[in-house]
Structures are given as C-alpha cells and as structure tokens.
Amino acid sequence: MAAAPPHPRVLMLPFPAQGHVMPLMELSHRLAEHGVEVYFVNTEFNHARIVRAMEGGDPQTGAIPAGIHMVSFPDGMGPDADRSNIGKVAEGLAAAMLGRLEELVRSKEIRWMVVDVPMIWALELATKVAVRVALFLPFSAAAFALRLHAPKMIEDGIVDEDGNVKRNKRIQLSPKMPAVDAGELPWSGVGKTTDARRLMFQNVIKTRTAIAQADSIICNTFEEIESDALAFIQKTALAVGPLEAPQATPAAGHFWPDDPSCLAWLDTQAPSSVVYVAFGSLAVLDATQLHELADGLALSGRPFLWVVRVNHAGAGWLDALRRRAGGAGMVMGWAPQQRVLAHPSVACFVTHCGWNSVMEGARHGARFLCWPSFGDQFCNRSYVCDVWCTGVGVCADGRGVVTKEEVRDKLERLLGDEGIGARATSLKKAARASVTDGGPSHRNLLRFVDLLRER
C-alpha cells in the first residue's frame, strides 16, 4: 500500500468567475500557510488570464506560493464563446470537467474538495471516489439562507418553480438579517436567457441536498455580523473571513493585471479625501450611466479613483471619461483594491456591493455608497444600509438612471454623517479581531485544517 501524502491535499473548485476564484485563492493561501497542499482548478480560459495578469502586473504581488498547484481543464465552450454569460458557462461545466476531476482526485490521492456552491454537481464525486467535501460560500451566509428558504417561497406562492416572482413580498428571515424584495432575491438577474435562469434556480433548489452531502461548510464572513444567518443554515458553518490575500501576493488569482500607479497618486491626496469607485468584474454601466457618474464625481468636488474595466469600456472610453470628469481624478482599468482601500487618503467606496468588495471594505473601515445591479448585491446593500448602517444607497430616476445630482447628493450625505464613519470604524475593528490569532475566524480556520488532517 502506498504511503499517505506527507501533507493533507485539498482540491479547490471555484465557479469560473472573478468573484468566485479570488476568495477561494485567498483561502488557499491561508491553508498553504498551515502546510496544506492545494490543487486549484481553473478553466483553461481563466487559467490563461491569470497567467497573463501575473506576467503583466506588479512582479512583487503576483506569485503563487509553494504548496498551491494551478490546474486547468476545458469549460466545454468554444474559443469565441461569450464567457460573460455566466448562465451559459454553467451549462457545460459538469460534462466538461467531472471526469477530469475524478482523475485528478485519484492520481493525487486527494481526500478533500472545497466546492464553490454553484459547482455542487461535483458532489457526486464524494461517494464515487471517497473524497470528503466542504461547501464554500462565495456570498454572505444570509444569501445562502435565502437559497435554503427557496422551497418555502415556492410553497407560499412568492416565486414559481423556475424562480420567477409571482407575488412581490419583502422577505426577512430574522431581525438581524437583511430584508430583500422578492424581485431582488440572490438569483435575480443571473443568466441572460430564460433557460439559463431556470438552470441557475435549479442549482438553488439543490442547496438543501448539497448541505446534507457536505462534510463541512466554509464561509467568507465573520460571526459578529452574521450570527443569525449562520444559525439559520442549521449545520456547523465555519466562518473564516474576511478572507484577504497576503500582502506579498494580493493579486494572485486576478484575471487582469493590477496597476499599482494609483498608489503613488493616492499618496499625493489629502487624508480621507478620495472617492474610490469600482463595480467589480461583471457589472456593466451603459454610456448614459457612465456619463452621469462622471459628471456626478466632478460635481462632488472631491478627488476620485475610478476603476472602469478596460474590456468593457475600451481604451477610448477611458480617455473620454477622464476628459469628462476633469482633472480631479484618476480613471484606470483595474486596481489593487485591497491596497487602495487600506490607503489613508480614501474616504469612501462606491461599489456594486459584491460580497468580496463588501468584506474588503468592512475590513478597512470603508463607508459605502451602494449601487447594486443583480444577484446577491441587493441583499448585501440591505446589510450595509439597513443592518450595519455603514453606508447609503443610490436611487435611480424614472428612466432607471442614477443622475449626477443623485451621485453628488449621496456622496455629501455619506461623507457628512459622523455616525456612519463611527460604525464603519467599529466594523473594521470587529473584522480584524476575527482573523487575528485567537479570533473566531482564525479558530475556525484551524478547525478546518484539523479536519483536513484527519485520516
């Protein structure tokens, strides 16, 4: 009989989108620090992007540490397919990857898989190859709780069996959890076609079965802010967040190279003066909205750092936005967000409210101007604005446009409210205490490492 591997081996399986790859890579760093050997699976398309980003970015921040092995498999799509259509991406993953995952688990004698919730089809390997499974939540525990509540919403006639809203109702599972309208549930707006949305909701309905099959649940959150939501899951869920990459390698797992030039620009700005604007990897604003935002930033009279995805806006658009917004700010294609949020000149964070951004902002004491567009972002906005009270939300006009006046007025309100600042500072202290030695998230991480070491 072959000797057991000297270190526990775990396979990481994220859904192939930036907001899923990044937190699982951050978890991989944490596990590698404790002697765990990680096999990190990307699609071939995303693996190539990550390699290019590491080569084209800051050479000091892109290296993959020892103990993390990057593995790539096909995603089942053609070379020119639209991979921003996440519903379409999801359709072919199981057929393209399941056999290759089985081969990897067997050949490397892997005993654990950490499976991103949208990839729960991989749980069928649990019995087939005797591998244990931890479900990873790339969103809040509250958003996961809403997934668990979906069958009851069908029973109550709030949504149909495809996830479409039948009766608009505001849903709040406990007083300390966010309230969301039925039309803004975490699966809303995900998928560009009816078939894609149906597929995504089928994944939601399978959540309860996945919990029963999983040996553990890992959450990028911390107990102080989500104790009620964690309890609602009704199975021990290990909150290990806020996850953050080590200072030496914060860009590992990014699809685009970080541009560190903004840090030198931030150094020239006054403390707590800069408006940081970033809408993540998937949110796209149309031309009208981009212009209104540019004009609103100019009206605010504050310096700003605005990240606009180059492959969404194009180089010409970046130059046009720079001219429109005037000389008070910096417009760029992709920024080292964790380092930006940590900078003392940053006053607030204008965000789409993706969970990774919310956790990063919380860890750095950010005030949030919330601008959600789909998925769990509405749930996260409710946390920020209604539960934690560390930010305010924007409101669109009758055309569905957030006007320049709305941007200016909400920034003034956000930055003029001392109570918001005090609560953001308190949240920062709680977030950092959770991940320090002896903190609840640190203890939960060590508990998971112990599980991985079990024979």
TrEMBL record:
Keywords for this protein: Transferase
Gene Ontology molecular function terms on file: transferase activity
InterPro entries in UniProt: Glyco_transf_N (IPR058980), UDP_glucos_trans (IPR002213)
Source organism, top-level taxon: Eukaryota
Domain Glycosyltransferase N-terminal stretches: 10-53
Pfam families linked to this entry: Glyco_transf_N (PF26168), UDPGT (PF00201)
PANTHER family documented for this protein: GLUCOSYL/GLUCURONOSYL TRANSFERASES, GLYCOSYLTRANSFERASE
Family assignment from sequence similarity: Belongs to the UDP-glycosyltransferase family.
Protein name: Glycosyltransferase N-terminal domain-containing protein
The species this protein was found in: Urochloa decumbens
